Recover the amino acids of this structure.
């Protein structure tokens, strides 16, 4: 039995333990705590509350307590929201996930198509135009693109709702509900897709350019295959291979939420909640969320390594 | 009291009871009332919609629903147990209070039809209306009030209520577990209840006269020292206010439906929704997604709102003021002359009025212009006067030194300033840097995006000046709160304490006014904090809504039951 | 025998940053039905480009067939529209490439790669195509065909891959098979196998083969007719026996002499001195002149033309032109 | 073998001339690449504009002038004025000094650190690889926000002048942000290691240092150029994120990022495009120019590239 | 007789085969399976065999580019595989390798002058100031010109690149050169140039070669002794004339007959081997060649033939001889 996977899993667990301690200490040493910002309270009351919340204990003791509970599946109550941390995740994370999943999917599909076409027509006007557009998207802050689209598509043209996830007060269910959500998602998804498109398109384009120079592309053409088939079956499969590794890295991003997009579009996602909790030093929520992302990150790293082994027939045997 | 991470001035119903901070970061101080010259274009009179046909179809279609934007509430809708003011906004519609305040801040009856205050000012007796009901139809009695007060003295109580600081007799004993009940709280009959304090406190009437929790509902599982069970009830509130909670969708909206058991009668509009919004709400007002929004009263904003044509606009002055806390331990600002020089030398008009496009005015006392205690009598306006500032600095012994920076005993006059990251702070720093350089002060600004970091820094004492603004002030005494909650410890002026206590010892407004004038004059001269500005806001709302007024102290909640949709 | 393909005045140029490369320069030859024509010549002399020009696969942008005609079964391939040409590729015209390892798609199973032309050209359905593919695999002498069909290229040896390439090329029964150095990357025993196989297919189906190689041993074994190229031009051509027994061009002679032959060991091998000229710096001259033992002044200044010197042999060399003129 | 030092300079000169002609050849090739040159010219222009331009502006003192606030572009202020009546053109130029410096510096730094660690991990494999990659894993799981604020608090504690803090924070961010870059370089390294010329290096008995710096590094430079030029936009923008958290430059010092951020509301966005177009265009022009130049540079540095 | 320069005794090199995500080892590729070679100074040993028969692995294992599985490699009496890395590095200049593919064995981003000279510097064999002269000298002795020194590998033709590879090895003054199919990627006319260069260098410097190839005509030309490998094992070893005149092993015979001879229409008795070379991971039982051997008998399938002297230093492993 080879130990590759076992070894990786073991490392993963060690890293997660290390990470949890490090993260806990980081949060603990961030200036201020949950009580500090509430400057209406008298010093005595602050002391009382710290006692109630256990904030006056040494960091390691608090960490130990947190870890013990976490290992029992108890991630505690959010201090600010007064709800179990897991319930809060459930309330917010799926919204973020929806947005991220759809836009990631679109980003990949569009990046692949544009990448393939602009590699195929390298240095054509299409290629140049795409490149300019990509750089434009890369050199503008995201809030800016968001505002711009809201202004045009929502306020002026009124084609799409300016924000939120459903029409306020709507009781739509079933198909109607889905339609409503899709309409509301459109703008944020467009912005997120635009933002993610740039580097991925460049990546696919350069992979594709490399692949198109390979001998087997010439073979495919010599067989008399249609150009589309040559590009999308023979070339693309190879060009996508190195990108498979990226899939794993997308994992934490799918659940991480996006502060700015969520804020601009009033999207009820975890990104905003995290930011807000950070401002408040809502430790249970911060720890819960960060560890969740850390776990996803570690899994994602492992996944991307494994995926590569699965995807490339050449790697498998070595 | 919620920890405050930059709540924005644009939020709808700011005027909730009890649960906001005394001080918020300066950054929130965009808007201020016009005590000074009102610049051209700013709104002094309400403005009525000119063309309702421009109202977006979305808003046109709504007939029994009003939508108002609100920063994401957390769902802790039980009064006294909230950590955020936004939850307070929600609960202010769900719960009525015993006593409320009018637009001047003067207490008026609500659930209590009257009250008595004993001669010594220590005992408050409330007389409840008859046949009061919670929204589920159960009766509301003095027992519920007693329970509400008692629970706030529980050992495990972690909310931000001010009630425990009132020192109700026997409260401490209860909290320590040595008494089974609170001695000072007496249920006289189902309609009458009294509370006795250990020291007089003029704010007690409003603090005691707040929301009432149903003992049958919230007290069912109550055991001393155990309050976790209440968390489970947060999202299922049982109140007695104009509206009932219909549905709470985290991060999206809070839906209300009219309460037929409301003691003033069922509200005129069946549905009300708080829609979660962040920051700028222009797009939602313009597309008719919300019916009501507040904006800082800049000329541009007002112009643009007028241009929309379908909104009514009312000017509004929040009951707050902005100030800079001074580190009185530090040599360079310990001297009153230096503080006065700083105020003279700072072009507050440019910063808070001109650069804010009229959405603010200059403050000189610790009270908002709309307070009943506000006065300008005998108040030095400290008009921008760099010459005067220089003269004062000379007088204080700070002499011009090398490269233009003043020195005393070989130490340069350097001011370390802390502010919260915001556009306004950026403007402040830009102007202040120039102003201070002109009078020979070296200005060292530092900004923080994170309120907690800022406060930690202040607590560490490493600063000379730090910008804050108060949250909503109901009683004038709250304008001095920072001197009592430990935030400012180094101002020990016996005269101040004497006057302050004197003002609290009586509940007679005219009497109090006189004392406060004296206090304001004292502060205006001594400048234990440096007053900066007032905000000025406008509210814009769907022209179809009738009977809408906004109280500086209780926000929409007061008039909401009366709102109609034309 | 009828002409299957007739190439006339074919020129293919590459336009690079540094200038124009005349990779194939005014080349004419023909391939008759059932005949094997070999093109020999040093690396870079334009053999592959000639083949690519026939297949219509010259890299663009950069490369372009600038003039000439390629008549295949009476039709000029250069005038055909893209679609028709594509439908002939892999069907009537097929090609095997030099590098079997890199010429097959590493992420697609062997079977599928063989099936593709069958499905496109013969319109077979999936099942039929697979059956045919398996048949083809065993036809090229690979055992366990089913298993091979489901494996990936990296799981096969170079010799097997080249046989797969042959299977793909002959799958649709081409009239002309272009084999561009099919055995250069392989060792001798495998080379023998492959050449054997090509001969056998030719015998079975009567197709013509255009075989490109630089190995004169291979030429001797396979060719009916030989074309010797140097720097983009044909320098000599003729029937294989004639050419080998009586090479005319100094380059052809050099090539024949420099190959070590078993059991004919010499102390020192003959080697043609010097280098192939830089294709960017070709002046009007005999391109071989600076490596030629018999270089004359005229060789440096004027380009010789391909002349018939009898016995069906053609040479482009001043030696023979002089001879002819003087004769 | 004896060292004949007296001959050395002469030979050096000979060698150098061979080299420099090669260098000249690269430069010539670069000069021939019109697209790359136009990118280079734009970058130069941006630098000149930002570092020399302000010398010719009458508004360099950034005086606040309430009478002139929010004026549209005109004769007096070519690109208009901002909310405090300051000249936008001057501020864009001054902002460029910081944005360009910060962008380039942080780009170079993060690429450098990432490349170094990635190279070491990929080259030495084994323990070094395990340690570096596991630390990278760990770093990837650490949230950035508390780190930033702790940095901020420490810098404030240590009384680092506010003008320098941004650079220090950028530096620390680069130190923390290396894992992505390192992974990529490591991957490249692993495949380079297996190339035959590396086997040749082993046979020749070359020292590790030479293998690393003379053989492997030149081969990952194209990757580094691509990564670096792609990062430049992000680096310029990240400064404004730092400013947002109060860790960047102090007002009134302008940067392109915080100038655009100042237009972060509907009214300015709609009614005063001169507030955001100039800084936006500056970033755009710089990013695209650097990328185009980077592409050209990569082509030129690639000895094989001939297009 | 001078002392033995290289002694390879019972060398084995097995590569593990791993499978699946778990990298389980499922078997071994016996790339080199018990090979012994002895090389005297000045000798040229030719190693021939089919592709994949383990020729390169022999060469690479001798130089310790891969670690051996078993056996012993002694260079001038020193066991290379037990030497500490730093000492081994010091020994490297004495034994050099020339690669089959001259292009991929040159770093595309290193100028050939540097590629040739750098090892001298790293071994301290020459001062920085003298390197250039030495490189120029070596370039010229390999038939290249001085102006080539600052060019990049891609600017050369295949034959020139191979000369660069040779120059890179020669400049270190090695005693042993292992040439791994140095001419099989080259054109006929260039092949001749390189082969001539090899013999010239041997004459002038007294070099010892281990010459790996699959082209018997080339090997015949250069080598004094020849070993034939099949599937990781040596099947026949003999002096050149002996081997070509009296090949004993059927595989050797097939190899000889497979070499194309540039005489058209020559009718030759050719042994075309059927089938593929079996996988070294799963070699046939008995004589490894029996699956393709036209003369195979029952004994070949079951018994491993002994590698024995068939007389006069002609070693062969075949039951039928
Ligand atoms: N894409 C291209 N761009 C520029 N020049 C090219 C290109 N392809 C081929 N050439 C040039 O065309 C000439 C002929 O090349 P070709 O590939 O036909 O040679 P060949 O005879 O097949 O050589 P080999 O035996 O090495 O395969 C060469 O000089 C080469 O440099
Ligand atoms: N690193 C490796 N890992 C696994 N197997 C290997 C490795 N290197 C070589 N092999 C296997 O060892 C066997 C011998 O390979 P080697 O390269 O030595 O053959 P060769 O005789 O040099 O062939 P060629 O003539 O093709 O160069 C082959 O089956 C090959 O697949
Ligand atoms: Mg070719
Ligand atoms: Mg080999």
């Amino acid at each position: 039995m080879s130990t590759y996977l076992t070894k990786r899993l073991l490392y993963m667990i060690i890293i997660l333990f290390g990470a949890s301690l490090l993260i806990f200490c980081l949060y603990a040493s961030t200036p201020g705590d949950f009580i500090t910002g509430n400057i209406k309270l008298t010093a005595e009351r602050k002391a009382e509350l710290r006692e109630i919340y256990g904030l006056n204990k040494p960091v390691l003791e608090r960490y130990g307590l947190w870890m013990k509970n976490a290992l029992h599946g108890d991630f505690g109550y959010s201090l600010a929201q007064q709800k179990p941390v897991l319930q809060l995740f459930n309330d917010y994370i799926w919204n973020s996930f929806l947005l991220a999943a759809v836009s990631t999917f679109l980003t990949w599909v569009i990046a692949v198509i544009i990448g393939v076409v602009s590699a195929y027509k390298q240095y054509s006007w299409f290629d140049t135009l795409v490149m300019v557009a990509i750089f434009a998207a890369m050199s503008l802050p995201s809030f800016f693109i968001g505002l711009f689209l809201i202004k045009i598509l929502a306020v002026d043209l009124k084609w799409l709702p300016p924000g939120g996830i459903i029409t306020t007060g709507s009781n739509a269910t079933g198909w109607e509900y889905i339609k409503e959500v899709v309409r509301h998602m459109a703008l944020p998804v467009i912005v997120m897709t635009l933002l993610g498109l740039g580097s991925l398109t460049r990546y696919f384009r350069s992979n594709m350019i490399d692949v198109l120079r390979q001998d087997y592309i010439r073979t495919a053409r010599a067989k008399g295959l249609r150009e589309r088939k040559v590009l999308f079956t023979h070339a693309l499969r190879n060009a996508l291979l190195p990108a498979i590794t990226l899939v794993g890295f997308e994992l934490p991003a799918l659940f991480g939420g996006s502060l700015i997009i969520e804020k601009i579009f009033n999207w009820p996602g975890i990104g905003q909640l995290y930011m807000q909790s950070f401002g408040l030093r809502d430790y249970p929520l911060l720890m819960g969320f960060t560890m969740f992302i850390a776990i996803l990150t570690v899994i994602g790293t492992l996944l991307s390594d494994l995926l590569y082994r699965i995807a490339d027939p050449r790697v498998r045997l070595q | 009291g919620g920890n405050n991470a930059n709540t924005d001035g644009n939020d709808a119903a700011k005027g909730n009871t009890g649960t906001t901070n005394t001080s918020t970061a300066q950054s929130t101080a965009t808007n201020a009332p016009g005590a000074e010259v009102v610049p051209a274009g700013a709104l002094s009179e309400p403005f009525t919609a000119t063309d309702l046909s421009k109202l977006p179809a979305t808003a046109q279609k709504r007939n029994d629903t009003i939508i108002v934007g609100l920063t994401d509430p957390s769902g802790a809708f039980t009064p006294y147990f909230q950590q955020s003011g936004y939850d307070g906004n929600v609960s202010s519609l769900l719960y009525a209070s015993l006593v409320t305040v009018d637009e001047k801040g003067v207490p008026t009856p609500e659930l209590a039809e009257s009250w008595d205050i004993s001669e010594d000012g220590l005992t408050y007796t409330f007389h409840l209306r008859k046949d009061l009901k919670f929204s589920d139809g159960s009766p509301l009695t003095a027992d519920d009030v007693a329970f509400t007060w008692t629970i706030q003295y529980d050992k495990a109580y972690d909310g931000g209520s001010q009630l425990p600081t009132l020192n109700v007799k026997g409260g401490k004993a209860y909290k320590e577990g040595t008494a089974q009940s609170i001695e000072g709280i007496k249920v006289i009959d189902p309609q009458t209840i009294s509370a006795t304090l250990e020291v007089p406190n003029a704010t007690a009437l409003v603090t005691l006269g707040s929301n009432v929790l149903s003992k049958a509902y919230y007290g069912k599982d109550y055991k001393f020292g155990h309050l976790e069970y209440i968390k489970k009830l947060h999202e299922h509130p049982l109140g007695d206010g104009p509206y009932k909670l219909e549905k709470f969708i985290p991060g999206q909206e809070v839906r209300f439906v009219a309460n037929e058991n409301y003691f003033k009668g069922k509200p005129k509009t069946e549905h009300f929704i708080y829609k979660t919004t962040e920051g700028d709400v222009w797009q939602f007002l313009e597309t008719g997604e919300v019916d009501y929004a507040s904006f800082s009263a800049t000329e541009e904003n007002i112009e643009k709102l007028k241009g929309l044509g379908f909104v009514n606009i009312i000017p509004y002055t929040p009951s707050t003021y902005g100030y800079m806390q001074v580190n009185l331990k530090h040599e360079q600002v310990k001297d009153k002359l230096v503080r006065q020089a700083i105020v003279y030398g700072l072009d507050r008009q440019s910063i808070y009025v001109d650069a804010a496009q009229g959405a603010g005015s200059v403050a000189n006392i610790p009270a908002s212009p709309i307070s009943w205690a506000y006065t300008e009598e005998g108040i030095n306006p400290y008009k921008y006067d760099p010459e005067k500032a220089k003269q004062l600095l000379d007088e204080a012994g700070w002499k011009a030194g090398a490269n233009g920076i003043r020195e005393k005993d070989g130490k340069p006059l350097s001011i370390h300033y802390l502010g919260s990251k915001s556009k306004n702070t950026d403007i402040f720093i830009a102007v202040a840097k120039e102003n201070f350089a002109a009078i020979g002060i070296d200005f060292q600004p530092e900004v923080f995006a994170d309120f907690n970091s800022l406060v930690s820094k202040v607590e560490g004492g490493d600063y000379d000046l730090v910008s804050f603004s108060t949250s909503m002030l109901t009683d004038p005494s709250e304008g001095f709160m920072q001197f009592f909650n430990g935030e400012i410890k180094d101002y020990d002026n016996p005269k101040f304490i004497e006057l302050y206590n004197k003002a609290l010892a009586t509940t007679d407004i005219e009497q109090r006014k006189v004392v406060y004038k004296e206090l304001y004059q004292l502060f205006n001269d001594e400048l234990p904090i440096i007053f900066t500005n007032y905000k000025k806001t406008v509210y814009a709302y769907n022209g179809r809504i009738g009977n809408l007024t906004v109280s500086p102290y209780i926000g929409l909640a007061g008039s909401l039951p009366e709102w109609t949709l034309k | 025998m009828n002409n299957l393909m007739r190439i006339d005045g074919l020129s293919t140029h590459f336009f690079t940053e540094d200038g124009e490369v005349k990779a194939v320069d005014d080349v004419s030859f023909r391939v008759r039905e059932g005949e094997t024509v070999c093109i020999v010549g040093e690396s870079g002399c334009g053999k592959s480009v000639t083949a690519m020009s026939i297949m219509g696969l010259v890299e663009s942008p950069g490369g372009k067939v600038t003039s000439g005609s390629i008549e295949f079964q009476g039709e000029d391939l250069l005038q055909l529209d893209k679609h028709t040409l594509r439908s002939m590729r892999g069907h009537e015209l097929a090609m095997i490439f030099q590098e079997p390892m890199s010429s097959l798609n590493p992420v697609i199973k062997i079977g599928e790669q063989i099936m593709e032309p069958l499905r496109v050209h013969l319109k077979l359905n999936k099942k039929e195509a697979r059956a045919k593919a398996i048949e083809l695999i065993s036809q090229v002498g690979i055992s366990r065909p089913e298993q091979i069909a489901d494996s990936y290229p990296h799981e096969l040896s170079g010799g097997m891959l080249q046989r797969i390439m042959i299977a793909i090329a002959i799958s649709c029964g081409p009239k002309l098979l272009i084999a561009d150095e099919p055995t250069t990357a392989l060792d001798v025993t495998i080379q023998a196998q492959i050449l054997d196989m090509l001969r056998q297919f030719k015998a079975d189906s009567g197709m013509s083969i255009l075989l490109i190689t630089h190995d004169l041993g291979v030429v001797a074994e396979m060719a009916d007719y030989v074309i010797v190229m140097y720097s983009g031009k044909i320098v000599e051509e003729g029937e294989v026996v004639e050419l080998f027994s009586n090479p005319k061009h100094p380059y052809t002679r050099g090539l024949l002499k420099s190959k070590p032959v078993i059991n004919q060991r010499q102390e020192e091998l003959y080697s043609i001195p010097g280098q192939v000229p830089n294709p960017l710096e070709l002046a009007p001259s005999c391109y071989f002149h600076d490596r030629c033992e018999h270089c004359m002044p005229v060789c440096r200044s004027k380009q010789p033309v391909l002349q018939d010197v009898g016995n069906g042999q053609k040479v482009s060399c001043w030696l023979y032109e002089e001879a002819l003129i003087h004769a | 073998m004896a060292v004949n030092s007296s001959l050395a300079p002469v030979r050096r000169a000979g060698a150098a001339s061979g080299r420099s002609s090669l260098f000249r050849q690269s430069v010539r090739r670069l000069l021939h690449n019109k697209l790359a040159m136009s990118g280079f010219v734009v970058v130069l222009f941006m630098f000149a504009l930002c570092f020399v331009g302000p010398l010719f502006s009458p508004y360099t003192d950034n005086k606040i002038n309430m009478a002139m606030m929010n004026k549209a572009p005109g004769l007096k202020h070519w690109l208009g004025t901002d909310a405090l009546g300051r000249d936008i053109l001057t501020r864009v130029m001054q902002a460029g000094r910081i944005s360009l410096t910060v962008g380039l510096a942080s780009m170079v730094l993060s690429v450098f650190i990432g490349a170094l660690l990635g190279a070491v991990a990929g080259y030495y494999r084994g323990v070094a690889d395990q340690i570096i990659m596991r630390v990278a894993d760990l770093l990837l799981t650490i949230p950035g926000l508390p780190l930033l604020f702790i940095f901020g608090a420490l810098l404030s504690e240590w009384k680092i002048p506010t003008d320098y803090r941004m650079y220090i924070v950028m530096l620390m961010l680069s130190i923390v942000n290396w894992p992505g870059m390192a992974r990529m370089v490591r991957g490249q390294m692993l495949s380079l290691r297996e190339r035959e010329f590396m086997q040749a290096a082993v046979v020749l008995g070359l020292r590790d240092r030479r293998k690393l710096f003379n053989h492997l590094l030149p081969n990952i430079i194209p990757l580094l150029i691509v990564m670096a030029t792609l990062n430049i936009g992000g680096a310029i923008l990240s400064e404004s994120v730092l400013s947002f958290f109060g860790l960047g430059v102090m007002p009134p010092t302008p940067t392109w990022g915080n100038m655009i951020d100042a237009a972060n509301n509907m009214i300015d966005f709609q009614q005063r495009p001169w507030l955001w177009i100039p800084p936006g265009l500056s970033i755009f022009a710089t990013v695209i120019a650097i990328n185009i130049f980077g592409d050209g540079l990569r082509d030129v540095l690639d000895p094989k590239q001939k297009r | 007789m001078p002392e033995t320069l290289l002694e390879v005794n019972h060398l084995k090199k097995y590569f593990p085969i791993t499978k699946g995500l778990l990298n389980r080892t499922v078997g071994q590729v016996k790339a080199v399976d018990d090979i012994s070679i002895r090389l005297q100074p000045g000798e040229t040993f030719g190693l021939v065999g089919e592709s994949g028969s383990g020729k390169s692995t022999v060469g690479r294992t001798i130089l310790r580019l891969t670690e051996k599985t078993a056996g012993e490699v002694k260079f001038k009496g020193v066991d290379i595989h037990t030497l500490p890395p730093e000492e081994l590095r010091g020994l490297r200049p004495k034994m050099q390798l020339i690669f089959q593919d001259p292009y991929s064995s040159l770093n595309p981003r290193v100028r050939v002058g540097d590629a040739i000279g750098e090892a001298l510097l790293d071994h301290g064999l020459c001062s920085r100031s003298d390197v250039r002269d030495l490189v120029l000298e070596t370039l010229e002795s390999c038939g290249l010109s001085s102006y080539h020194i600052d060019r990049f590998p891609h600017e050369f033709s295949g034959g020139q690149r191979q000369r660069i590879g040779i120059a890179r090895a020669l400049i270190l003054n090695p005693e042993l050169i292992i040439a791994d199919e140095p001419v099989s990627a080259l054109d006929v006319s260039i092949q001749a140039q390189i082969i001539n260069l090899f013999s010239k260098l041997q004459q002038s410097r007294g070099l010892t070669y281990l010459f790996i190839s699959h082209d018997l005509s080339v090997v015949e030309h250069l080598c004094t002794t020849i070993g034939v490998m099949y599937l990781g094992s040596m099947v026949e070893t003999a002096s050149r004339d002996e081997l070509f005149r009296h090949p004993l092993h059927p595989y050797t015979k097939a190899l000889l007959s497979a070499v194309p001879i540039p005489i058209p229409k020559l009718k030759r008795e050719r042994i075309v081997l059927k089938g593929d070379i079996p996988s070294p991971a799963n070699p046939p039982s008995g004589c490894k060649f029996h699956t393709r051997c036209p003369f195979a008998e029952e004994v070949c399938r079951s018994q491993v033939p002994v590698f024995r002297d068939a007389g006069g230093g002609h070693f062969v492993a075949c039951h039928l001889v």
